[in-house]
Design brief:
The protein is an all-alpha fold. It is 62% helix and 0% strand. It has one domain (2-86). Helix 3 (42-55) packs across helix 4.
Length: 92
Amino acid sequence: MPRFRRTAAATALACIAMAGCSAGAEEISAETTCEEYLNHPGEERQDAAVRISSEIDGVSSPGNPMWGLSLDGACGSNPAMTIGEYFGQGSE
């Protein structure tokens, strides 16, 4: 029984630690720089690219899943650019 309690306690602590780490992560927005964007996991970047392309007026093919790959490539060569600048929003 003591072994089970230790395992359960360790599992609970691991779950709490993981939840705390992910809760502190900042959401990707139009103001996010490419350098920050590329530090997020691939699926999160893909979802954000599709979402942001739909939020900014004037984007050609808003919500297109190809925006994720395209944005990854552009950000790799211009880490200071913001996601909004990439989608034509410009810097304010």
